[in-house]
Every structure is written in structure tokens, then in C-alpha cells.
Design brief:
This protein is mainly α. The protein has 18 helices and no strands.
Length: 278
Amino acid sequence: MLFDVHLELGNFELAKSYLDKFSNDNSDFDYLIRLSKWSDHRGNLEAAIKYMEQAKEIAESSNLPATKQWVYTNIADYYGHAGRIKDSYNHYLKALSIDNNDAYAKKGIAWILYSYEKNANEALRILNSITTSYNAPDYYLLKAEIAEFQGDSNLQEEQIKLYKSAVQNEFYGDMYNKYNVLLYAEENIETEKALKIAQTEIKNRPTPQSYDLLAWTYYKYGDATEALDIMEKYVVGKTYEPEVLFHLAQVYKANGKKDEAKNLKKELLESAFELEYH
């Protein structure tokens, strides 16, 4: 659990030190899922999948429904990141076979239908079925994104309003800071709000992903030089998240660093499934 906390906070060396305390136990479920998470953090998706598959074998042999459901959705995510769309889809279905109300699994299937099959109508139908009883704010943003893809500006605006209203609930705390920054950074009149939230996120979690939010806000505001400075100090070489690398490529291009941007192209193409909406 200390590994989980320190990885989330960006204390990567400390997180790894806790993981190393258990490095001799490759048959332990809790260790394997964290080793998988660490591998993903390091940009080694192949290893992340390997360790999660080992954890899946343990979960299936123990036959604990909740554990199997958790593993299926997590490995489905990894398969999607690796472009193994059929495997991803099948494991979301496995999770749903355990709990047919698993909102996360349904969202994963909706994302496949939208981003991979371009079946926006069916994706929206699934998302609408989820939000009749499950109202996490990020589902509104996904529906807004699909509406934009369809050219339905009225639905897009409606869903963004629903999102903004939902996150006013103090119950969520800082849970949706990332989404808020990315949303407000797109709206020039909300730049100051985006910068403030990004700074809060850095204070809470000084991770490369948090600094990326700040850099992206400056970039969208037109200050590509400041964005590049932040990226080079706090982001470059410290994370392999596709969305962050996409932002970095845009910042490089805006600063005339075409070779650096081109070097990221291969990795971004491999992450096309995740980045389809860009």
C-alpha cells in the first residue's frame, strides 16, 4: 500500500524501494499487480501485461469473483494500450459476466466501439445506459467527445454543462483536477482557472503528469516557450503516458524542434487506439 501511495505522489524511488522488499515472491498476487503497475510506469507495456497475466492466473485459480473482475478490467486496459483490441474487448466481457453492472467494463467497450470501430451511436447508447444509475462526471466528458465527433454541438455543449455542474460537488475534492485542467485549457477565457488547478495538482502530486497539465495549459494559451521549459525540466524522460507524449510532441513542434517531435512519432502511432480522438 505504501508503494501505491508513493507511486501516486511521484516519489518513484521510494515507491520502488518498497516494491523491492517483496521482489522474491513472484507467486504473490499483490506483488504481481504492483510489479505490473511499475512496469507500465516505466514504459514497459509488454512486462506490465506479462505480470498482470500471471496475476490473472492466480485470481482464476482462487476463483474469487471480485478479484477476477478487477484483474479482467485492468488487463483489458493494458491489452487496449497494446493494440490488442479483441483481447481487450473479451476481457471486458469477462468482467461483465461476473457483474453485468460493471460501469468501468461497459465504458471500456463503449470506448472500443467509438475509437476503434467508429460506431459512435452504439457507444453513446451504452454510455447512456450506464449514466441512468451511475453518474461519475467523466462519463459526461466522454459523451461530449463523441458528440463532437458526430458534429452534434448541442449534445456536446449539454454534456459539458452536466460535467461542470457535477464536479461542483465538494464530495469529489480534487479527483477531477486533471479533467478540469484539460477542459479549461481549451477555453481561452478559463486559462487562469486552468493554471490555478494545475498548480494545485502539482502541490498535491508533483508527478510528470501533473507538470504536463501545467505545460499544456501554457501551450494552449500561446506560451509555447514556457510550456517547453516546464516539459524539459519535469516531464521529458520521466513518463511514457501516451497523452503526455502527445502533448510533448505538440510543444516540440511549436518550438521548432521538429526532430524531437518526429522521434516521438513511432511511440505515438503505437498508442493510436488511446489517442484516436486527437
